TrEMBL record, chain A:
Protein name: ATP-binding cassette domain-containing protein
Key words of the record: ATP-binding, Nucleotide-binding, Transport
Cross-referenced CDD domains: ABC_NikE_OppD_transporters
Record-linked Pfam families: ABC_tran, oligo_HPY
Hydrolase listed as a keyword: no
Transmembrane regions: none
TrEMBL record, chain B:
Localisation: Cell membrane
Cross-referenced CDD domains: TM_PBP2 (cd06261)
Keywords: Cell membrane, Membrane, Transmembrane, Transmembrane helix, Transport
Protein name: ABC transporter permease
Primary localization: membrane
Keyword Cytoplasm among UniProt keywords: no
Entry-linked Gene3D superfamilies: MetI-like (1.10.3720.10)
Source species: Sedimentibacter hydroxybenzoicus DSM 7310
Record-level GO BP terms: transmembrane transport
Bilayer topology annotation: Multi-pass membrane protein
Family: Belongs to the binding-protein-dependent transport system permease family.
Residue span, ABC transmembrane type-1 domain: 94-283
Transmembrane spans: 32-54, 102-124, 136-158, 215-240, 260-282
InterPro entries assigned to the protein according to its UniProt record, in alphabetical order: BP-dependent_transpt_permease (IPR050366), MetI-like (IPR000515), MetI-like_sf (IPR035906), OppC_N (IPR025966)
Automatic annotation (TrEMBL), chain C:
PROSITE patterns: ABC_TRANSPORTER_1, ABC_TRANSPORTER_2
Entries under Pfam families matching the protein: ABC_tran, oligo_HPY
Topology with respect to the bilayer: Peripheral membrane protein
Species: Sedimentibacter hydroxybenzoicus DSM 7310
Name the record gives this protein: ABC transporter ATP-binding protein
GO CC annotation, single: plasma membrane
Keywords: ATP-binding, Cell membrane, Membrane, Nucleotide-binding, Transport
UniProt key word Cell membrane: yes
Record GO terms (molecular function): ATP binding; ATP hydrolysis activity
Chief location of this protein within or outside the cell: membrane
Gene3D superfamilies in the cross-refs: P-loop containing nucleotide triphosphate hydrolases
Phylogenetic classification of the source organism: Bacteria, Bacillati, Bacillota, Tissierellia, Sedimentibacter
Amino acid sequence: MSTPLIQTVGLKKYFKTPKGDLHAVDDVNLTVERGKTLGVVGESGCGKSTLGRSILRLLEPTSGQVLYKGEDILKYDKLKMHEMRKNMQIIFQDPYASLNPRMTVSEIIAEPMRVCKTITDKKELDDKVNELMNTVGLANRFVNTYPHELDGGRRQRIGVARALALEPEFIVCDEPVSALDVSIQAQILNLMMDLQDEHGFSYMFITHDLSVVKHISTEIAVMYLGQCVEVASTKELFSNPLHPYTQALLDAIPIPSLKYRNKKRTVIKGEVTSPINPKPGCRFASRCKYAKSECVSPDRSLKEVNANHFVSCILYK
Amino acid sequence: MTDIANSKVNKVEIKKRSQLKSVWFRYKKNKMAVAGLILLIILFIIAVSAPLIVPYEKVVEQSMKHRFIKPSSEYWFGTDEYGRDMFARIIWGARYSLSLGVGSIIISLIFGALVGAVSGYYGGRIDSTIMRLMDVLLAIPQTLMAICIVAALGQGVFNLLVAMSASTVPKFVRIVRSSVISLKGEEYIEAARACGTGDFRIIYKHVLPNVIGPIIVQATITMALTVLTISSLSFIGLGVPTPQPEWGTILSDNKAQMRYYPYLTTIPGIAILISVIAMNLIGDGLRDALDPKLKN
Amino acid sequence: MGEKILEIENLHVKYKTDESDIYAVNGLNLCLNKGETLGLVGETGAGKTTAALSILKLLPKKIGFITEGSVKLGDIDIINATDADMRLIRGDMVSMIFQDPMTSLNPILRIGEQIAEVLQIHKKDMSKQQIEERVDEILNLVGISKDRKNDYPHQFSGGMKQRVIIAIGLACEPDLLLADEPTTALDVTIQAQVLEMMQELKDKLNTSMILITHDLGVVAQICDRVAIMYAGQIIEIGNIEDIFEGEHHHPYTIGLFGSIPNMNEESKRLKPIAGMMPDPSELPVGCSFKERCASCMEICKAENPEEAYLDTHMIKCHLFDRKNESKTMS
């Protein structure tokens, strides 16, 4: 196998809080292949956004490695990292907060290219901005408008155009559609998939919405309290979920069809516990109906159960 | 995808209205604020065109024959104990009072914005150091501090400017810092960092333009206070030296005559009052107009 | 047909803002029977929340106005009711649950007190003892141990807070519960818990409910009837089977379903609706969906379609005006 585009090795990010260390990302090992999409799913507070930001070094990880084509970018100095940023971009959740309200659409899209000096000629820059707006489906007449004059869907297109401006290879998408209405959400999802087909981007798609992640991802990682509990290809995960948490998560999704109306669901009790100084052992154990005494044993790494299907649960050895 | 987007775009016409326009739209709904703005504009026009209204000689020209003339058609605001034309003095006084007010605000604004942005953006030790320094400055009453600085540097227009700026800077530092801290977590700042934007560019391009609202409001309200402080300093003899017609100085010059010739102190008093009220009204109006929470 | 608990006819609501008038609800007709759960579905800005607020007359003062139409709650005419009447109705006959459980509770009052408060206002004849008992009972109903009634809201998690809010809403056994996106702010596993609880309550209490949501999955789980809103009108309404399994649909409904990634089959591309909702301050002449509609005809550009009924199923679209002419009942 060739070296993957992005690989995290034992990535950890702890936040210091007055009550102790908050384990936002705890020993996560993931791989993003070229041209593929890795979906990262989990509930609020499971550390999925922190993971995305740690990979981009928007947050400095506490320990571990982030390998880009086999090279550890956490060892890069400021200058090298600046160069590196052209290859990795991010699309944010909130199309309202992620655009500077005092800049026009063209300024926002041109800004990354100005900063990285990839294009210095004024005329060329304008052309590139036009081209990008065309790519993401924004009419040229919006060039001089401000973001607050546009609706959520168009704003998110600006966010996508900005991420594309530096022609990155890898894009972290942090809940890019969850603030949008379904019909607009579908437009943006289609756009992102088209762009991937054309340009061969690799995505890390962070979301809490399983139906969206199923639609767009080739591989899915399920996170719970900072840890990755299951990784598998999309098809495998949905047809054969192994970890009890994944099962519960899949079962909890309300499906817009009457076939499932009277199906008895297995609703997991309780809520996510605090990620501050978590106890050793399986973090899901307190809510898990299969929990046994061995669940508290500290070793909980991912094990390959089926081909390319990794689970961290004592039920599978 | 592009087709869909373009076709819909051609049909839906967006409403275009620049931010400045919508601020003005909300501002003009407040009648008092508009009145304040008109007053202040008139005052500024008077200050700028003072030489066209009365020549400067009239301000200093003394005449024993024309002492204590009550307001009349010849001397609109009367004359003082040296027979100087009060109308000319008040008109020219606007120049001193307003330019000192505006000048000191501009200086403390620039300085405060820079220091506050640095303090808020970097946080940590830099922030604590700057803020403790500002706390010390804030602990001294504005007037007292201005008195100390003028006393140390000596009387004069320039020193007064320095004194006033130094005493208002901490306010701006605080307000800019807190705005910057609340903005720092915004995703567009993070987006800027994600494409490798340097700290300096982030501050001046992404942070400062977005904190301009609260700064402007603070500036207009502080300006009113500054005009008042300058007049008080002049009144106690630490501001603009006496032959020059600053409003506070005029008040001070005539305080002995207050009992017999009340117009000598009332008129400069009203001049100060009008300018301070105008600035306060504008400040209130701007605060409402710039408050993003009221925006739709 | 059961007893009618709510009847809205030709409701129009307008918001006056600095810049323009916003027509949020434009000719809404809606009927609700006793014990029925109606899902009110639509995108942001479709007027769902405004419609619910009009029922309680809670539109923002001096901004929101009911300009036309009638709202009847049982035999009470809401439009002409005084403020004093409305205060008696709110919380007693009709209660509302808001979207955000984090901000809907008063942080400085114990949750027991907050539940007791509604009872004290509306059930004047209840003794202190009875109120206490009722609080315990209602907490039990929503699955919170009564030992926790002296806790403050910040001691509860999001899902538990939403249960408390539902408990407050149900305390006086209202005839009608308006739930505005009650699970949107919750995680899926917590949402499943709350939905399960609401389902149980519905069966137990026989309360009518209007569930406002944009999530068709939630609707499929607990609603009996569904109304699809678009630009301030109900464009399709019917029993849950009509909407989810019926043969005929409004083009917007089709688009809405096409936009949701399907969990059960492989689909490469979604089929979204092009464009976006018309600006509510400048509503177009004719059908409000015409600009996004693939089957737009000449008549759609000129006339707003009539409501076409097919038994329990209503579609407001010119396509069905003619097709079902013979079957039209109304």
